[in-house]
């Protein structure tokens, strides 16, 4: 059994940006992308793996959090961005192969696409942790879209412009005068 315990950190976030839209309830797996220090990982101890298998998945360890990192990151995320953070211990040592013999891949090796991506949180202003964290997320077909406030604002602007155009057309100065002016025009047949 390994003396070092590693952790995964996840969040469920509303109003998550993706390709010009926003989504609610997006699950984000947070990953350590880089560290300003050597954590001193003993990969042979942390991974359940025989190096002779030709596959040595150090990234399964590198992207994981130590307890101190997980706690510091959770505090940063709650303080600066607000979402709940879930810290889950890995079963140690970390398994590298399934029972069928398939290799487990680090999340950092996942493919980005139209429904998935990486979010470099460490690029935010005020990010001051000594390790860089990025989030991996995926938008599923049933992920709810956040109500599009910009579209609602644009619709309001269009409606307001129609009212203004109508006021100019009927030569009225206030909204209160508009219904009477429209009735009068319709009654006289001067449309």
Characteristic terms for this protein:
191 residues, alpha+beta, 5-stranded antiparallel β-sheet
Q: How many helix segments?
A: 5
In the predicted model, the low-confidence regions spanning at least 5 consecutive residues are none
Q: Look at the structure and give the mean pLDDT.
A: 83
As a percent range, the share of helical residues equals: 25-40%
Radius of gyration, in Å, reads 27 Å
**Principal-axes shape call:** elongated
How much of the sequence is in beta strands?
15-25%
Order of helices and strands: EEEEHEHHEEEEHH
Give a count of the beta strands, DSSP E runs of length 2 or more: 9
Distance between the termini: 87 Å
Any idea how many domains? Answer: 2
Arrangement of strands in the largest sheet:
6-1-4-9-8
What structural class do the secondary elements suggest? alpha+beta
- Outline the biggest β-sheet: 5 strands, antiparallel
Would you give an account of this structure?
This protein is α+β, with helices and mostly antiparallel strands. It has 2 domains: 7-138, no CATH class; 149-188, no CATH class. Helix content is 29%, strand content 23%. It has 5 helices and 9 strands; from the N terminus they run E-E-E-E-H-E-H-H-E-E-E-E-H-H. The strands form 3 sheets. The protein has a 5-stranded antiparallel beta sheet, with helices on one face. Strands 2-3 form a two-stranded antiparallel ribbon. Strand 2 (16-18) and strand 3 form a beta hairpin. The radius of gyration is 27 Å and the shape is elongated. The chain starts with 6 loop residues before the first strand and ends with a helix. The model has no long low-confidence stretch (mean pLDDT 83).
């Amino acid at each position: 059994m390994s003396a070092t315990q590693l952790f995964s950190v996840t969040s469920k976030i509303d109003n998550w940006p993706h390709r010009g839209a926003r989504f609610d309830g997006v699950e984000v797996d947070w990953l350590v992308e880089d560290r300003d220090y050597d954590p001193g990982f003993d990969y042979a101890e942390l991974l359940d793996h025989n190096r002779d298998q030709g596959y040595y998945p150090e990234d399964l360890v590198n992207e994981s959090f130590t307890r101190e990192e997980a706690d510091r990151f959770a505090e940063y995320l709650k303080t600066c961005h607000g979402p709940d953070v879930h810290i889950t211990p890995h079963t140690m040592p970390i398994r590298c192969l399934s029972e069928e013999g398939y290799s487990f891949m680090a999340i950092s090796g996942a493919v980005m696409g139209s429904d998935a991506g990486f979010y470099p949180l460490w690029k935010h202003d005020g990010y001051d942790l000594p390790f860089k964290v990025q989030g991996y997320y995926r938008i599923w077909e049933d992920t709810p879209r956040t109500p599009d406030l910009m579209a609602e604002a644009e619709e309001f602007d269009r409606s307001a412009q129609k009212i203004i155009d109508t006021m100019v057309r009927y030569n009225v100065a206030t909204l209160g005068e508009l219904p009477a002016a429209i009735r009068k025009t319709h009654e006289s047949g001067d449309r």
